[in-house]
């Protein structure tokens, strides 16, 4: 390879690497870095959070607020996703919200949150504790539109979600715990949100806990 072409190729590679590094730093500031957790723990083979709740349907890009409101109602606090979204922090110009925004709102309400990067086993373990877990997934597996939604149960075939996007609702539950079930293999594809600008955010989720007094 001529030296001029070799130099040009190296410049392109270095520029690409620098772009990835800068993007990762910006995302770490705007979104916070998820904490890796891979340790396998015991959990029930099937689990569903059976608590009467209300599943509201969003109209625009308010999934972060609607997911947060669902979790707040789980803890007995009346919350409306649309109202919550009005003053929701960490919004992008598009109206979408960074994960940090969800955590800020929940902490302000008196809860402890963690942002994890795990796998199917760690997600099931967290759900089996009895509190909805907010996952960061794609709306459709072949597109890059991203979405927050609470996971409220699982079994050997499906994950059960409290879905705020009307066109994704595909079932119903007597307790209003869930209105969407996703086959596990499909969920894995939706959960893989990784792209060149977001290398660290596949398989991430937010857990919520009450603060012990």
UniProtKB/TrEMBL annotation:
Matching entries from SUPFAM superfamilies are given as: Cysteine proteinases
Pfam family for this entry, one: Peptidase_C39
- Judging by the UniProt lineage, the source's domain of life is Bacteria
Q: Please name the Gene3D superfamilies in this protein's record.
A: Cysteine proteinases
InterPro entries (UniProt xref): Papain-like_cys_pep_sf, Peptidase_C39
* GO molecular function list: ATP binding; peptidase activity
GO CC annotation, single: membrane
Cell wall biogenesis/degradation as a keyword? no
Q: Name one GO biological process term.
A: proteolysis
What stretches pass through the bilayer?
Answer: 12-31
Q: What is this protein called?
A: Peptidase C39 domain-containing protein
- Organism for this UniProt entry: Viridibacillus arenosi FSL R5-213
């Amino acid at each position: 390879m001529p030296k001029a072409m070799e130099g040009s190729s190296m410049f392109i590679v270095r520029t690409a690497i620098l772009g990835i590094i800068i993007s990762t730093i910006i995302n770490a500031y705007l979104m916070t870095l998820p904490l890796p957790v891979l340790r396998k723990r015991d959990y029930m083979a099937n689990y569903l959070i059976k608590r009467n709740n209300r599943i509201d349907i969003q109209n625009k890009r308010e999934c972060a607020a609607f997911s947060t409101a669902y979790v707040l109602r789980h803890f007995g606090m009346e919350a409306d996703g649309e109202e919550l979204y009005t003053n929701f922090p960490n919004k992008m110009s598009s109206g979408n919200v960074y994960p940090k925004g969800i955590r800020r709102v929940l902490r302000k309400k008196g809860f402890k949150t963690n942002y994890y990067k795990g796998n199917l086993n760690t997600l099931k373990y967290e759900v089996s504790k009895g509190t909805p877990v907010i996952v960061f997934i794609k709306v459709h597996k072949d597109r890059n539109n991203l979405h927050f939604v609470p996971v409220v149960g699982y079994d050997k075939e499906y994950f059960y979600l409290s879905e705020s996007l009307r066109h994704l609702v595909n079932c119903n539950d007597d307790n209003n715990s869930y209105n969407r079930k996703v086959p596990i293999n499909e969920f894995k594809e939706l959960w893989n949100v990784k792209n060149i600008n977001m290398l660290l955010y596949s398989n991430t989720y937010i857990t919520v806990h009450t603060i012990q007094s």
